[in-house]
């Protein structure tokens, strides 16, 4: 599959590494093409870098960008995204308080992004997996929420290819809970071992 | 410490076992005194059973009851609970849909219980730990939310005594997220190994 990852930060790197290992072709797009090229070089021959310039050719698009930027991408690309699968990974944390979210009461970032690009098959995934854990090869739980069954099937398949454990938590509304719980995961990092490399999981007994 | 557990179901059993092993004195209270006595007998010499009849003598009270019953207990005992530490463990799941909660939008069961008994030091804990996992002796993450620092300190201490890993996620408002995430934990049991014995955890790397 050809996957366009927007952004070239740590999460783009972690997801890109997993997808390339899973046998997929990864395009990294960034407003700064040098950054995209650098990350693509690190990901290897199945990856390429490009300047941010549309989604043509991509079967799946990953917004590996902060919430505000992801929303802007959805608005900017609204017409070309219709019918496509977009993976939203963001955590709309209020970094001024680190004790709440910046999304409107009762709404998730994923729903806001979906509303900005009607007809897009938005799937929430990877918001609870820290980049450092994606970058190595241990299995991780990936919680998936979305309203489009085919898009969720696609994301589930990508996870399985990448040695991840997909867990379908239901409709896109449940992204609210994934985002809210990840805030708790982030804000207690000083209390738990292995800070910023911990794993939110439904660990088997 | 003398702890009154209201209820004699699986969660009362799991928490009771942990607390007794942790060196505490446990009283089991139930509307049906035989059930309370049976569970107390199973818990051993540090436990006793009684009919549900107030909280006198107890330093900490655990509502090991469903949401509606817990709210009724709070209303019924409002005056005697003021200043006391109450642990609310409930999950206000809408069992007709198994896809939502019965609490008012934006409110947690814990906050509703606290509102029903003003002045009570309500702490949310143990709502994400399945009874079967509490009943054995492996460590488990216990997520704790509450507005009263002393009450949280007490609950944190009880957890440490019981070989559990307390994680303070902040104020009582965060109980909303603990409850909502536990619904997801419950509803995906058919997708994950080790059903109803899995562990919601921030597993270290």
From TrEMBL, chains A, B:
<dbReference type="Pfam" id="PF03807">
    <property type="entry name" value="F420_oxidored"/>
</dbReference>
<keyword id="KW-0560">Oxidoreductase</keyword>
<dbReference type="InterPro" id="IPR051267">
    <property type="entry name" value="STEAP_metalloreductase"/>
</dbReference>
<feature type="domain" description="Pyrroline-5-carboxylate reductase catalytic N-terminal">
    <location>
        <begin position="3"/>
        <end position="92"/>
    </location>
</feature>
<dbReference type="InterPro" id="IPR028939">
    <property type="entry name" value="P5C_Rdtase_cat_N"/>
</dbReference>
<dbReference type="InterPro" id="IPR036291">
    <property type="entry name" value="NAD(P)-bd_dom_sf"/>
</dbReference>
<dbReference type="GO" id="GO:0016491">
    <property type="term" value="F:oxidoreductase activity"/>
</dbReference>
<protein>
    <submittedName>
        <fullName>NADP oxidoreductase</fullName>
    </submittedName>
</protein>
